[in-house]
Automatic annotation (TrEMBL):
Keywords, ordered alphabetically: Antibiotic resistance, Hydrolase, Signal
Gene Ontology cellular component list: plasma membrane
Gene that encodes the chain: blaOXA
Organism for this UniProt entry: Sphingobacterium corticibacter
Uppermost EC category: hydrolase
Enzyme Commission number(s) of this protein: 3.5.2.6
Family under the similarity heading: Belongs to the class-D beta-lactamase family.
Residues at the active site: 73
One Gene Ontology molecular-function label: beta-lactamase activity
Residue numbers bearing the N6-carboxylysine modification: 76
Protein name: Beta-lactamase
Residues making up the signal peptide according to the UniProt record: 1-20
UniProt cross-references to Gene3D superfamilies, sorted A to Z: DD-peptidase/beta-lactamase superfamily
Length: 275
């Protein structure tokens, strides 16, 4: 009986060791493949993906994934949630009225529904939203969200996510997305359900992809793509942060943010692009 226990323990330890080695091998393989994709687009940065089924993070650069950067337009996610919860806007089709003044993008120079302002990353639309939310309510909700690192003051209320000292890391982005998805943010069902509509990029019979890009220039070009992918019973949360190796090629850098993440998810067999 004593020998049988020893043999059983040996088999168990061997199995655990083999599983750990397999996981380590997969992690290393994904890291190499993620980095190759980033290099292909002439970027520097990190892709962080959390596979819920495996309860595992994968990345090409875990150290960079802990570094904080301006959230830029990824802040439109919490900004929209707070606006919905406080009644500043009421639904995905709430109209944000253009004041007739010239804006940096022609697509912003018209009245926009909330879902379109989110998709088009309308900066002045969301600056107006932040102003209507106000300093006290903005701070209160960010604290409830554990959305730390924001330099929210009276002077910065309408631009703290674009310029200055605010910082968020890829790990923090993923945690916030998980808290949102699993409804841990103490928000109404109406707010959650509306945000799910606003957040979704595309949906097919085999997968749905939700996400938001971001781009700041205050400390050099820095770009984000954050969100989650549902594929069958699997869910993958992601946060990618990049900067261009060549600052003169911003026109290539901007679309590359999303392309890199899509290819990284394909490497993991998370989904296949629709035709």
């Amino acid at each position: 009986m004593h020998y049988l226990r020893i043999i059983t323990l040996f088999i168990l330890l061997t199995s655990i060791s083999a599983f750990a080695c397999a996981q380590e091998s997969k992690s290393d393989r994904y890291a190499t493949q993620f980095q190759a994709i980033i290099d292909q687009y002439h970027l520097r940065g990190t892709i962080l993906i959390f596979d819920v089924a495996q309860d595992t993070f994968y990345s090409n650069d875990f150290q960079r994934a802990t570094r904080g950067f301006l959230p830029a337009s990824t802040f439109k996610i919490p900004n929209t949630l707070i606006a919905l919860e406080t009644g500043v806007v009421t639904n995905a089709n709430s109209i944000l009225t253009w004041d007739g003044k010239k804006r940096n993008m022609k697509a912003w120079e018209k009245d926009l529904a909330l879902k379109d302002a989110f998709r088009l990353s309308c900066v002045p639309c969301y600056q107006e939203i932040a102003g209507k939310i106000g300093l006290s309510r903005m701070r209160q909700h960010l604290s409830r969200f554990s959305y730390t690192g924001m330099d929210v003051r009276k002077e910065t209320l309408q631009n703290f996510w674009l310029v200055g000292a605010s910082k968020i890391s890829a790990f923090q982005q993923v945690q916030f997305l998980r808290d949102f998805y699993y409804r841990k943010l103490q928000l109404s069902d109406h707010t959650y359900n509306t945000m799910l509509q606003v957040f979704e990029i595309e949906s097919t019979p085999s997968y749905s992809l939700s996400g938001k890009t971001g781009w700041s220039t205050d400390h050099g070009d820095n770009g984000w793509f954050v969100g989650y992918l549902r594929s069958g019973d699997s869910i993958y949360f992601f946060a990618a942060n990049f900067e261009p190796k060549d600052a003169s090629k911003v026109e290539d850098f901007l679309p590359a943010r999303e392309k890199v993440v899509r290819q990284a998810l394909q490497v993991m067999h998370a989904f296949e692009e629709k035709n």
